[in-house]
Each structure stands twice: as structure tokens, then as C-alpha cells.
Sequence to fold (468 residues):
Amino acid sequence: MPPATPHILIGETAAISTDCACPTPPPTASPVRAAGLYQRADGLHRDQIAPGWALLCNTLAGGAPALLSPAAEERLAGFVGPRPLDHPDDLRLAEARLLAQMGAPIGPVAVTVDTLTAWVHVTNACNLECPYCYVRKSSAQMNLSSGQRAIDALIATALRRGFRRLKLKYAGGEAALSYRLIGQIHAYAADQAAQVGVELEAVVLSNGTVMPAAFADWLAASGVRLMISVDGVGADHDRQRPWKGGGAGAFAALERSLVERLLPRGIRPTVSITINGMNAQTAHAAVRWAIGHDLPFSLNFYRESDASAHYRELRYEEQQIIVGMRAAYAVIAELLPTRPFLDGLLDRVQAEAHGHACGVGHSYVVITHSGQVAQCQMELDRAAPFGPESDLIGLVAVGSIHNLPVDEREGCRECQWRYRCAGGCPALTLRTTGRSDIRSPNCAIYQALLPEALRLEGLRMLRHRLAM
Ligand code: SF4
Ligand code: SF4
Fold:
């Protein structure tokens, strides 16, 4: 039973790596000031998730949902008109973003993304042949001087545009095939960034099957994170991700990497699960596997590219994805990890308020293995040359993907979820509809699942913070 006095429990969020360029917006809540008048925020989402516990969430302001006891809801209801915060519980309601200060703007208007993110495509080679991959493979890899020139241009761009942090995503192909090169480029980047006071962070995106001990040692020593792709368990994964030339065994290889090389060194990779028409009904097993190993995970939707378009079986129907995602959510509700997982639950959706679905054109670039710059990893074939002093953002701002703010997208402007979803992947919308100023083709999926994703955070609080 909830306590008789007001009880307000505020959920948590944690950034989770994905294969994309989603900006990691800083929390949008300004510190609550006791002075001033407050009112119940508009358009609160409410869900009675357990007897005596209601989940409430300000979907426009961003942040995690909160759990309120009946007494706390009563206190909230008292703010039907403007009032001062004259009790500690009122402050708590404001911290949960359920009370809005009169005259304060809503949404992500004050947010500036302070991180320049770069996909560094170190190799075009891969030991797997996944049908949904957007890379037209070859044996070519980046050379060290191209990598160093890219780092020079990235740091010059960060300084010119006022980014205080640079985030590198070493990718391919299979990036781990070029792990020595990654080590060399990263050492150069760390040195150059330190000289000019730019913070550096990095992650390697990998299929997890290539894990020499020397690479695992380097990951552990450097603090560079790892993200591995897992699309099912056992044969389901192998069907999605066969060896180059065919054949099963990729799942066993990645599990060996995890158990024998990574976990003993304290490395907990993030698991990226890509849902498509082939694995929608079985992907829940990958979620169970990730939670079983205490790994953070993200659920992402397949995006068709020129390279994958002929695999018709990867295409999906809305209902098929919703059913499959609900099966995955049922696993999460059963196992309820202790670590916050909200940001990984639904494709490009993020808990913090943001106005653009990703950083394309603003805070993200892709460096190809041949040393050119592109808008997005789906656009590797449309890259432009650059020099060590180039403004890389300026070069990609005019590409084919128009990454419009969600407030300028038809169908999104009035949506309750617009600052969580931000309209979805602009490349997918353009490819599917021929337009950039319209809502995502995945809109119905987002709308169906967003409340259920919030509910999972509420259940996590009930289980781990109230021991229910
Ligand atoms: S794509 Fe759909 S869910 Fe997302 S902001 Fe637009 S209308 Fe809302
Ligand atoms: S356009 Fe789509 S695929 Fe490209 S970075 Fe943005 S969200 Fe990711």
C-alpha cells in the first residue's frame, strides 16, 4: 500500500549507445527555483500502473516519468491555477516536471548539443554478410594518414563550432578487423584533443565475433566502449548474421568473445538489437540474453538502404513490429534490470527532450574509409572530399537528407510525443515517402509503444525502489 503522505518517486534515464547519431541532449530540466508561480503542466500522460501508484510524465518537457501516491496526486491537483511552491512536496513535483513555471518555455528550445559525433568508417571489410547491412563491402580499409587528417578536421570543426566534446564511433564493415588501426587513430585523437581542451570519448561498433586478446586488453585500458550487434539467440542470430560466404556460428563466436574475453576484463558492451521482418517474433530472446548477462541494450528498427532493398523479407508491417516489441517488453517487465533502460527501448526515441531525431547536418558526420565526409552511414556512396582545416558540418549541411526540426514536420507539430520521438529517422522518411517535412513511417509504432516504454520504467521503480 502507498503511504498516506505524498510520495513522489522520480525515474532515471541513462544514455545508451546506438548505431546512429542521436545527439545525447543534456537534461532539459532547469533547476527548480522555489520563487515564482507554478501550474500543473499541460498534457500530462497518466497511467495507473499498480494499485495506489500512478505513473505521470510530462511528455513535452522530457525526462523520466514519476510515480505518485494518491496523496501526491491530490497535491498536484491543487495546482489547477498558478500557485507558489510552498511545501517540499511541491518542489518535488516541480523536479518531476509535473508542475511548470508560469511563462517558462516548453520543449527543447534552450538545449544546445555540445558534442560533435563522428562515425569513423575504419574498414569496408567484414567477416559476416548480414542482409540488412547498408555497406557495400570491399576489402578496403582506412589508412593512418587519412584517419589522422580526419581527426584534425574533426577537432578544427569542434573548435570552430563550439563543441566541447568529440565522440568517435569506430565502425565498418567489422571495425575489430582493424583494431590496430583504431588504436593508432585513437592515440592520435587523444593527443590532439588534449592539446586544445576538447573532451574525447569513443565507442567501437562490432559484430562481436572478432575479439583478439590484444584488442580486449586495449579496450579495457583505453576506456573506449564497445557496442555489439545481437539480433537473436543461436540459430535466429545466425540466420540474420551469417558468416561471409554462408554458414552458422556467429552467435557462438560472439558469446565466446563476451564470456572469455570481455567480461573477465570488466568490459560490458552495449547490445544493439535490430528488429526487422525476419526476427520481429524472436528478438525477445536477444533481450533476455542481454539482461541475463547484465548488459545494457537498445532496440532499433531496420532501415532499408540501396544495399539491402532486394531482401524483401526484411521489410515489416507495423503490427508485426508492435507484436514483436511487446514480446520483448514482456521479457523486460519480467526481469526488470536494475540499470535504467528507458533510452534503449524504442528505436530513435529518447527520454530527454530534443527537437531533431539525430545529429545529421548539425552535430554528426561520417568519415568514409577513403577519407571523405558524408551525412550519414546510410549515405557512404555520397561523400565529399575535405582537408585538415575543413568545416565538416558545413560540408554535410547541404546533403540530400534534410533533418528538419520536429516542429516543422507535418503530423508531428501537435503530437504529444514530439520532443521524445522528434519525428524519427529523416533518411528513412525521405526514402519511404520522398519527403523530409512529414512524420515518420514508423509513427504508429512509436505512438503505440511509447506509453508502454514509460510504463516499464515505472515498473522498474516499483520493483527496485519500492520493493514491490
Ligand atoms: S513521428 Fe509520430 S510519434 Fe513521432 S513526433 Fe511525429 S507524430 Fe509524434
Ligand atoms: S538519418 Fe537516420 S540513419 Fe542517419 S544518422 Fe540520422 S537517424 Fe541515423
Notes: DSSP finds 13 helices and 16 strands in the chain.
